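<goal> How does this chain fold?
<sample>
Here is the protein in question

***
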Amino acid sequence: MKITQERIESLAPEYVLGTLQGHARRRFQQWMMDSAEVRREVWFWEEKLSQLALVIPAEQPPASVWEAIETRLWPSRATAPVKARPKAGFSWLLPGWSLMATAAALVLAVLLMQQPAPEPEAPWSALTGAIVQADVDQPLWLVSEDSRSQFLHLRPVAAAQPEADKDYELWVVPEDDAAPISLGVIPVSRDRYQITLTPEVREALERSRTLAISLEPQGGSPSGAPTGPILHVTTLYEL
């Protein structure tokens, strides 16, 4: 099927809503890999449809929901257990300790006032997202990257093993019509996978915020460009 403006405008909202499935969805993902115009149309509809959330009454979720999300995304950041309070038998220490703490705080305040003002930190941003499949309830992979590091983190959740003698390969899809940039083969069996990003690759990812996964021969693409079917295309969002 030939790419036309009419087809792009017709299929992009279906792709964003998830109603475009099967072969048609895989073909549209290939269009996204090949055409910056298709990617711009998808971004337009993602932004447009996200406005629907504004008409839904806001509801504060329980704190346990956010804790569960953070634990799944960043297990290493799980909150440490709260230390036990001192036993009552040591209550005689508290008055003296209070005076010592007050004196120490005054000394620290004087020292801090004598220090030069710290330089403002550079703005920080984080890109995060999920690689999903329409017929699978859970995400296949969770993805996170932040501007303070040089790593992209992937965590498989519901990703299945590839076919025999095949591997999944991850790509950055540039903002323009430049060729996709390979980030290498990604394993499914590991709990977390870390990819080192060069400054050039980080810049391309931060500009396009688009990743793709293709199915390649074992060991990855032999040509440096996607040779197998494009299985997934996802857009990362800034936190």
About this structure: The chain has a mean pLDDT of 76.
